[in-house]
Each structure stands twice: as C-alpha cells, then as structure tokens.
Amino acid sequence: MIEVQNLYKRYHGPFGGDWVLRNVNFTIPRNVSVGLVGKNGAGKSTLLRIIGGMDVPDRGLVRKDCRVSWPIGLGGGLQGSMTGRQNVKFVARIQGGGHRIPEIIQLVQDFAEIGKAFDQPVKTYSSGMRSRLAFGLSFAFDFDVYISDEATAVGDASFKAKAKKAFRDRVGQSSLIMVSHQTGILKDLCQAGIWINDGEAVWFDDVHDAIKSYHKSIGK
Amino acid sequence: MKTLGTRTPLQVTWNVWEGLFLREAVARLSADRIAWIWLVAEPIAHVALLVWLRTIMGRIKIIPGADFIPWLVVGITLFIMFRNQLNRGMEAINANKSLFAYRQVLPVDTVLIRCGLEGLLSSVVVVLMLFGFSAVGYDMTPHRPLGSLLIWVTVLCFGLGVALILSTAVTIAQELSKFIRMAMFPLYFLSGIMIPVKYFPRELQEYLLYNPVLHGVELIRLGYFEYYRVVDGISYTYLLLWTTVSLTLGFLLQMRFSTRLVAK
User: pLDDT, tens digit, for every residue of B166-179?
Assistant: First the structure.
C-alpha cells in the first residue's frame, strides 16, 4: 500500500518555479497497478520520483509498506565509462545482492540480449541497447511495486513485446505505477488511474475513466 | 521480502560503500590512459621541479636537520593527498547525482568513499615513494614512525572534514567551486611545501601559522627527521582542533541539507 497525503512540491534554485503539485492525496491499495496520465509538464514524473524516494516533497508525506523499485529502464544510473557488466555488478552490490552477482548477471544478459557489447563501455551503446540493459537490470530484482516512466518508448518491436511480457508475468506478485502517453499499454497493464491536472491529482478506480477525462481536457 | 530480504540500515550502508568504493576505484584508475601512473608520477614531477628550481635559485640553503629531497617528498605527498581529497571530494555529490536514483545511496556516502579512496591511494603512493627513494640511496627511514603515521591519519581526516563542508557548499551553490579552486592555488606556497617557513620574516610567520595545513606538513617532517627544527607555534592541538571542527561541521551540514543535496 502506498499512501500520499497533502503532498506539495515545487522546484528550487535559479530555475525553480510555481507549485508543480498541490495538495495531492490518494492511496494505492496493494497489488493494484496504476497508470498516471496528464499533459507534458503536468508533474507526472515528479510524482513518480517522489513515490520512488528520489526526490522529497516540500510538504506532506508518502507512506509505503512495500519495496518500491527505482524507475524501470533508468539509463541515467549507468556509468558511461564502465562496461555493462561492471554497471550490473555495482547495482547488484548496492541492492544487497552481492552474494548472487553471477545469477543477476545471467538474468540481465538473458533479458538484454546485447551479446558481446555487455563487456564494452556503456557509452558505446545505442539508446536501444542502453534501455535493454537498464530494463534487464530492473527485472533482475524482485520488487513489490515497479515504477516506470515512459520506459517502453524506445526499443524495437521484439524488445517491447518482451518488456510487456515481463510486466505481465509479474501480475499478482507485484504491481506497477507507470507514466505513459501510449494509452494502449496503460489499458493493458493497469487497473486504476490517476489524472494529473493543474497540479492536482484525481483518482479513478478504472484507468479507462482516467484516460477519458484526460482526453476530454485536451479536447480529443 | 522475497529474494533480497530486508536489510538493516547498517547493512544497506555497508553494501552501498562496497559498491561505491569498487566503482570509484575503477573509475579513478582507468579515467584515462595514464591515470594510474600519474598517481606516482605527479609527486615525483613536483620533487623534480622543485629540485631544479632550487638549483637555479640557489638561495634556499640547506634545510636545518633534514636532507632536502626526503624533506620535499614527505611534505609534498601529504599536501597532494589533502589537495586531491578536497578537489575530488568537493565534486563527489555533483558527479554522482544520477546515482541518487537508487535511494540507498546518500550524498554523504559519495564524499566519504571518494575521500577514503584518495586517502588509501595516497597512502600506497607514499609507501612506494619511500621505498623508491631509499632504493636510489636516500635515507627515508622515519625517526618516529608512529608519530608520522598519526599526523598522516589526522590530515586524512582533516581533508575529509573539509571535503564534507565544501561538497555541501558547492552542490547548493555551484558558483562557489570557482572561488574555492582559486583559494587552493596559494595554499601550495603558504603551506611550506617548497620553502621552509623558517626563512620567512617573523611578522609574516605569525599569519602563516593560521594555516592548519602548514602545521600538518611541518609536524610530519618533525616526526620524520630526528634533528629537524620547526618554527615556534607549530602545534598538533591546533591541527586536531581544525580536524574535529571541520568533521563535526561537515557531518552536520550533510545532515541538515541531506534532502536539498538530493533534490533537483
């Protein structure tokens, strides 16, 4: 279960601006997958980052009693000058999987299918290869809730199918909180929906309703 | 739950340190093609340059109570450790920003690991230098090994403390790094690396003695050479005071700004 209470967030520093999120409240029950919809710049990614513990709200709180992943397919955490293998080892270590590194490496290699490139510096990878590696890395660990920010946008057809299957295989054991503009995948994988509009979040028990409200607001 | 199980906070920290340390070590030693040789080459280059300067200047007479080259080597390696800790530790948080996506990694971890790694590498380098210079005929045996070691460790902690403070400052206001780098430049000359502080006029010495690095450099030489004479006013208590204050302030700042350092 994830509970968000009276959450406010704005960015600081020279380019900081107005409130991005204002008085956001909702509760995600256990094993319910949620799709986040809203315009570009509405605050979807910000909310996701706060739920994932990567950013902190200015006011309010997020209560979690489950293991939440880092954003699936996050390529930013990969060090360009190191090989895919070295990067995988690093993440395995900080996640407390130091004793099962060979197993994790095998899982990632099987998922990513990037062949010899696995032992080459990540900076030589194409964006698709990076994404394959990052995806494989996320799925090598078992979390209760996976968070995903437009993770399926890059990659070829076979990889997309594989990623979708990986999500589906986990239905029942873990749930998903995802941001995507591809409504197809949201309808496929999520039950509930959150529509973010003008810094406020509206909860829908059915993701279809969330998508409908969102489409209505942009006049589609 | 499940395969990973729940870890205690201490275990998480240990795992993060282990991962970060190996990552930093690989990155540091393979940053470019000469990164690993530069560790040893840089202090040797400094010594060579200063010996050459001394021969053309010819004005710095003999160092009372110590051989010139061992005297230089001991001071320079200590100073380079301090400088590297500052320069690299200061940027640790900014350089590892993408890692905070894994919420187990805290800003303070990156600074601690970088400074620890710098300290360890410098310690290996100094041992290599000592053996290297004794192999070519200089007497590099410390007169009070434990005393020298104590100063080495104190300066290592001092560097860590300053890096903790500066990394907070630089991450919150990026512009500050320009001023800090500029301030680092005269430190080399003010710390008595090249010219013994004894040769400066008395009135100037008074001010130079405010610099804690000078105390560290002179104290390690004092521990090293039996008949070495330092300027009046060099004190271990003073260095220790700076170390304690900077470490305390550094950790406090890291705690106070822990969320600001992570947030974008």
Answer: 999 999 888 898 99
Q: B16 to chain A: nearest residue by CA?
A: A94
A9 and A52 housed in the same domain: yes
Nearest residue in B to A138, CA atom: B102
Each of the 220 residues of chain A gets a pLDDT tens digit; together they read 899 999 999 887 777 778 889 999 999 998 899 999 988 888 888 898 889 888 888 899 999 888 888 888 776 778 888 889 999 999 999 988 888 899 999 999 988 888 899 999 888 988 888 888 888 888 888 888 998 887 766 677 888 888 888 888 887 788 889 898 888 888 888 899 999 988 889 999 999 999 999 998 888 7
Min Cα–Cα distance to chain A from B125, Å: 25
Given this model, what pLDDT does residue A75 score?
67
Give the helix ranges, DSSP H, for A31-83: 44-51
Angstrom distances, CA of residue B157 to CA of A32, A173, B85, B230, B248: 49, 47, 10, 23, 11
- Cα angle for residues B122, B123, B125 (degrees, 5° grid): 60
Alpha-carbon span A190 to A188, nearest angstrom: 6
How high is the pLDDT of residue A152?
A: 67
Structural domain contains residue A163: no
> Would the CB atoms of B103 and A52 count as touching at under 8 Å?
yes
CA distance A12 to chain B (A): 8
The count of domains in chain B is: 1
Residues A121 and A180 in one domain: no
SS3 A63: strand
Q: Is A122 inside any structural domain?
A: yes
Q: Is residue B242 part of a domain?
A: yes
Q: Are B223 and B74 in contact (CB under 8 A)?
A: no
Number of domains within chain A:
2
Task: Report if residue A127 sits inside a domain.
Answer: yes
Sign of CA pseudo-dihedral B1, B4, B5, B8: negative
B261 interfacial to chain A (CB closer than 8 Å): no
Q: What is the DSSP letter of B59?
A: -
The answer as to whether A85 is a domain residue is yes
A61 shares a domain with A5: yes
Per-residue pLDDT tens over the stretch A145-197: 998 887 766 677 888 888 888 888 887 788 889 898 888 888 888 899 999 98
How high is the pLDDT of residue B3? Answer: 41
pLDDT of residue A16: 72
Which parts of chain B have pLDDT scores under 50? Answer: 1-4
Contact B102 A91 (CB under 8 A): yes
Nearest chain A residue to B30, by CA: A81
Q: Which domain-ending residue is among A97, A124, A142?
A: A142
Is B217 part of a structural domain of the chain? Answer: yes
Task: Give the domain extent around A107.
Answer: 72-142
